[in-house]
């Protein structure tokens, strides 16, 4: 983009955001549509905000440009904000559940959406070889500085899972990944293609009450992340060849002092 385009985009986005915050959702929707015309790649997440306001259908996923921009902006302070301010402890929950279920030993971890390496740190002594993947280059740089992973890649996780690898992984983790995805079919299929027989898939999701979700498999919540129906996750795991070992309700984080409900899932891959 040229400087003029950036200025026009910033002005249009700020106008839309102000209208949304003022509760003028019809006007905000039109303003966000103008933003999308200026920025089809959607670095500001206009499509997600439209869905959150009920002014557009939920996209199949959060735009890649939006996710990478969002996390790159917060890379240097990510751990402090997520853990200290938002009370996020899902990686430690994953470790605790693995130990309680007496799973392992493991040889190779694939940490999808690794971010700054919180899951890699939590699982560091449970698996000798660790690979991390994240769409945000700034997050990967922070993870690299920690020297948590043996291999690190910048990339979108579904696309990464399409690349043929010589070896599969026997532990695949995806903490705080599903909230930026709507449809999960391709993602779960990719995990199945890359996991060893009897390998463990550990991940978290966010959810909403049944009376809010209705018949929807997923929707965008008020904090602009995707919430998934438990039934959708269960059915899709089964179709993808996984057996659920544990599915527990958790508080994923806190937003504006409110607990964000979700699930922690541990599943084993049973197809050869």
Question: Main traits of this protein?
Answer:
272 residues, alpha/beta, seven-stranded mixed beta sheet, two-stranded antiparallel ribbon, 9 strands, globular
What can you tell me about this protein's structure?
Pfam families: Methyltransf_23 (PF13489), TPR_1 (PF00515). One of its GO terms (biological process) is methylation. GO terms for molecular function: methyltransferase activity. TPR repeats lie at residues 9-42. The chain is of the alpha/beta class. The chain has 12 helices and 9 strands. The strands form 2 sheets. Strands 3-2-1-4-5-9-8 form a 7-stranded mixed beta sheet, with helices on both faces. Helix 1 runs antiparallel to helix 2 and helix 2 (25-38) packs antiparallel against helix 3 (46-52). The model has no long low-confidence stretch (mean pLDDT 92).
Briefly note the structural class of the backbone: alpha/beta
Rg, Cα atoms, Å: 19 Å
Summarize model confidence as the mean pLDDT. 92
Strand order of the largest sheet: 3-2-1-4-5-9-8
Major sheet description: 7 strands, mixed
What is the succession of H and E elements? HHHHHHEHEHEHEHEHEEHEE
Oligomer: single chain
What portion of residues belong to β-strands?
A: 15-25%
General form:
globular
- Number of E-state strands: 9
Spans with pLDDT under 50 lasting ≥5 residues? none
Helix content: 40-55%
Number of H- or I-type helical stretches: 12
End-to-end C-alpha gap: 48 Å
């Amino acid at each position: 983009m040229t400087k003029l385009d950036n200025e026009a985009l910033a002005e249009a986005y700020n106008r839309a955001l102000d209208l949304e915050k003022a509760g003028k959702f019809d006007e905000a929707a039109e303003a966000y549509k103008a933003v999308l015309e200026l920025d089809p790649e959607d670095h500001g997440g206009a499509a997600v905000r439209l869905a959150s306001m009920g002014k557009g259908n939920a996209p199949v996923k959060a735009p890649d440009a939006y996710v990478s921009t969002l996390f790159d902006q917060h890379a240097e302070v990510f751990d402090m904000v997520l853990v200290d301010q938002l009370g996020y402890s899902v990686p430690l929950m994953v470790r605790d559940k693995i130990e309680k279920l007496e799973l392992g030993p493991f040889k190779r971890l694939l940490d999808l959406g690794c971010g700054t390496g919180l899951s890699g740190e939590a699982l560091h002594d449970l698996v000798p070889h660790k690979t991390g993947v994240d769409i945000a280059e700034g997050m990967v740089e922070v993870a690299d500085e920690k020297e948590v992973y043996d291999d690190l890649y910048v990339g979108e996780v579904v696309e990464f899972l399409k690349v043929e690898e010589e070896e599969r992984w026997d532990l695949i983790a995806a903490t705080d990944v599903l909230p930026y995805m709507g449809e999960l079919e391709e993602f779960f299929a990719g995990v199945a293609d890359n996991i060893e027989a009897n390998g463990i898939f550990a991940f978290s999701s966010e959810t909403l009450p049944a009376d809010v979700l209705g018949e929807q498999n997923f929707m965008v919540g008020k904090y602009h992340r995707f919430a998934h129906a438990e039934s959708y996750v269960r059915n899709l795991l089964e179709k993808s060849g996984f057996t659920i070992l544990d599915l527990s309700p958790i508080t994923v984080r806190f937003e504006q002092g409110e607990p964000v409900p979700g699930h922690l899932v541990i599943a084993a891959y049973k197809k050869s």
